[in-house]
Records
---
Amino acid sequence: MIRPVAHIGAMAAYALADLTAPEGKLLISLSQNESLRGPSPAVTQAIHRAAETPHLYPDPDWTGVRRALGDVHGIDPAQIICGNGSLDLIGAIARAYLDQTTRALVPAHAYPFFRTATQMTGAQLTAVPERDLTVDVEALLTAQTSETRVVFVANPGNPTGTRIPRSDLLRLRAGLRDDVLLVIDEAYGEFADHLNEPMFDQVASGNTVVLRTMSKAYGLAGMRVGWGYFPSGIAAEVRKLLNPNNVALAGQLAAEAAVQDQTYMRDTCQMTMQIRDAFASRIRQMGLDVPDSFTNFTLIRFTTPELAQHADAWLKAEGIFLRPQSGAGLPDCLRATIGQAKDMDFTADVLSDWCQQKRISS
Ligand SMILES: Cc1ncc(COP(=O)(O)O)c(C=O)c1O
């Protein structure tokens, strides 16, 4: 029998979204934190341009994307690395800095891929308790040991949607040993940029990486483009682990065009936040718990895991797919991506029916 290496054999496969609508129902997918609308119209033209030269390899240095990002964020394009989605970068960082003798730290309700990426390397993982579904910096610092090599923190967080301020991240960095890499995953950073707390300057410390993605606010999830701002030495190590030509031509041209249309992206964020806040307030009026979100989704907390499962099945019967959160240690929660206003209204109507039926039957 052919056996995989022991730590890979022991891993569970990454849990993907279930998207099979019941017969006769239209699928309303609110489960993958995709954008509520497509990208800037300039992106469509860029993708058409990619169709002219599909026989040629793409730019291995992502020059156009890096230049556009450097201009918009006022950062050095030479320190930007692009990935086939930011998942590509998270995996490469884990492989470069973790092995079977080391340990990564994550907040208890962190994005589950941090665990997967850590497991791929055979390293151990410590999940550190959060406070009110929010990253607890003191608890992370207390959990640091001599084995700790990497700390992964998504800010804003997924699936919590909550956020810690820049001052907390600075305290975290200051309290970590210099040989511990801090990875700040800002996949939803564009939805919090109006708070004006960018973290890119921290990369100069030499042991902090900031990741972002084109998949959320820019509406390019299907193009698979993520990026990160890295200290030069870390960038060199991570690049060794990425497949050469990791971002296809269409993805590169699409990302460059999307970044150059900041007005469109900001409008998407505004639109999303308005619909999100209206949806959250309707759900709260039903007596369900919804933490304040700084992202394009909201977390809905039920009183028990059984009620969350029951509500999930009730919504699915109407074709509405939210994302259960057992994988992030929150079996009593469902996460709802913010879609079009009419879909969110329908989702709130169906949940309201569920609440009434529960009240009558209990
Ligand atoms: C916190 C976080 N990081 C990374 C990713 C991966 O994004 P990408 O599509 O860039 O691989 C996601 C996607 O949901 C996410 O929520």
---
Amino acid sequence: MPEKFDIKETIAIGRTFDEYSRMFDLRFTWLKNASILDMGGGVSSFTPEACELGLNVKSCDRIYGFTPEELEAKCRADLEGMLEKLPAVRKNYLWDLYKDEEGLRSYREKAYKIFMEDYRKSRENRYIRSELPFTVFTDKEFDITLVSHLLFLYDEHLDYDFHLDSIAELIRITKEEIRIFPIVNLRWKKAEFVDRIIREPAFDRCGFEIKKVDFEFVKGGNECLSIKIS
Ligand SMILES: C[S@@+](CC[C@H](N)C(=O)[O-])C[C@H]1O[C@@H](n2cnc3c(N)ncnc32)[C@H](O)[C@@H]1O
């Protein structure tokens, strides 16, 4: 069996509002008066679904310069590429939620279809092209920032300095709390960078907490890192 999920760069795979709610242990009452950023939101349907519920969410990604046609082609190709590689490594995953590869496909297709419709309609208002580690946002622009499947996961492609600069940037642009999920990497192991980041003297005024959440696809990958900003 391969020793890791072998992908060469971050891919445009999207998750739904329901998956985000579980991964980040989100409560509507916490979100409802907050200004929220989905960093590295990609083709997730979290932003359109949340906005439909009346929440104030923006999404940021380096791929938002793409036209809808280019983006749809990329996310279809990335989804097929991911699904082709999955059978060889499926033992590393828990299938309670998705059941099988087809179940997983339907979640991912639902996410990108909802996203694509909104991207065509609301690109100017909600989808900001920018990228970590240095973004276009002002200091404390958002109350809450969520980062799903970008930091820690790709620790063999994005080095420690990238993580250090990115977390500093997220602290700069966030007023209240940052949540990051997952904290396992493509080798299905807890990313070593997590403990190094928590111990960084530069972040000693922040409150770090690793929380168990009600979402586990990678076996053992049911933890979210919360960073409370003081
Ligand atoms: C695996 S996808 C996750 C998408 C979404 N967060 C989700 O969980 O459904 C990773 C996303 O991170 C984006 N990305 C990669 N490098 C980035 C960077 N330096 N800054 C912002 N986004 C980045 C990719 O374009 C891609 O859309």
